[in-house]
Amino acid sequence: MTDENAVLTVSHLDVAYDGAGVISDLSFSVDKRDILVVLGPNGAGKTTLLRALQNLLPYHGTITWQARKIGYLPPQEFLQRQNLPPLTIDEFYAFKNPAEGDVSEILSQVGLDESLLSHQFGELSTGQFQRMMIGWALLDKPDVLILDEPTSGIDVGGEETIYSLLHQFWRNQELTILLVSHDLNIVWEYATQVICLNKQQMCMGKPEEVLTPEQLKALYGTGIKFYRHQHR
Ligand SMILES: Nc1ncnc2c1ncn2[C@@H]1O[C@H](COP(=O)(O)OP(=O)(O)OP(=O)(O)O)[C@@H](O)[C@H]1O
């Protein structure tokens, strides 16, 4: 039986690299308009999970999407502006075959001037680049967006731009977000659901219900500062 409100249902998921198990017997579901944050220590299998969900890795178990279109934000290396191809923004956006008017609309939504379309990647400021990338991810109107630590290595200002823009889109349109983040502040501020992963599922639920100091200690070992934003 499928849950009408679920956008993703994962059941008994196992993923291994060369026979070495990385994810074992993972089951969870994500509802429409959830912001699910995948938490876990280094090597816990978070990126592996996101890749399996996008059918980029072989797996056992079932992954059922009830999504119209799944979008993703490119890897951190791209977001950190390393090894970028010599393209103008116009050329980059054209890869998505946007309909008439879509580029203008998305640029206005991310707060960028159309004159930037003729610029190359290297000619944008950091903040403009972050906005441009969010616009690219959302240009073809996905109803699900997958992001793997989108702000790692990005300065605090850029981080703020990415999350506040994403949150703005999430508020204004039908969007479900699956996000890997190490940042507990992001979890407290934005997550509607959290899954704690350390090869196996260690918690799943609303952050305020499942992220107890005990759970965080079990997930990360000692030394995690327990800090909760009060303003939600
Ligand atoms: N292509 C690969 N081939 C073999 N092993 C891999 C491969 N990719 C990842 N692994 C291993 O799988 C495990 C999980 O890796 P994964 O990248 O999913 O972890 P993660 O939770 O995203 O970690 P981090 O927080 O450090 O980014 C690690 O032990 C890693 O070494």
From TrEMBL:
SUPFAM superfamilies: P-loop containing nucleoside triphosphate hydrolases
Short name of one Pfam family: ABC_tran
Record keywords: ATP-binding, Nucleotide-binding, Transport
UniProt domain ABC transporter: residue ranges: 8-224
GO molecular function annotation: ATP binding; ATP hydrolysis activity
Superkingdom, natural source: Bacteria
Family label: Belongs to the ABC transporter superfamily.
PANTHER family recorded: METAL TRANSPORT SYSTEM ATP-BINDING PROTEIN TM_0124-RELATED (PTHR42734)
Annotated protein name in UniProt: Metal ABC transporter ATP-binding protein
Taxonomic source organism: Methylomarinum roseum
Taxonomy of the source species: Bacteria, Pseudomonadati, Pseudomonadota, Gammaproteobacteria, Methylococcales
